Amino acid sequence: xxxxxxxxxxxxxxxxxxxxxxxxxxxxxxxxxxxxxxxxxxxxxxxxxxxxxxxxxxxxxxxxxxxxxxxxxxxxxxxxxxxxxxxxxxxxxxxxx
Length: 97
What we know:
Elements: H1 4-7, E1 8-11, H2 15-19, E2 25-30, H3 36-47, E3 51-59, E4 63-66, E5 69-72, E6 76-83
Antiparallel strand pairs: 1-2, 2-6, 3-6, 4-5
């Protein structure tokens, strides 16, 4: 099994993800080969919270162009974590609301 730090890569900070903080939903960039149960265990271990639900989605990379050269950003996986009602908030996001 992989370490929790290898599964949860970084938080996703967007306007939509900041609006979801009031409803107890947190968005993270996760490893592409991680499944929902691994993501749930990693979040509970790293932040000490209780996870109610995990939604995942695969995001395709975008085509980038510099002059005549065309490239592509890498594909990645996003997880939206919903916490239980009685769970405490994740401290990392507290100052951003």
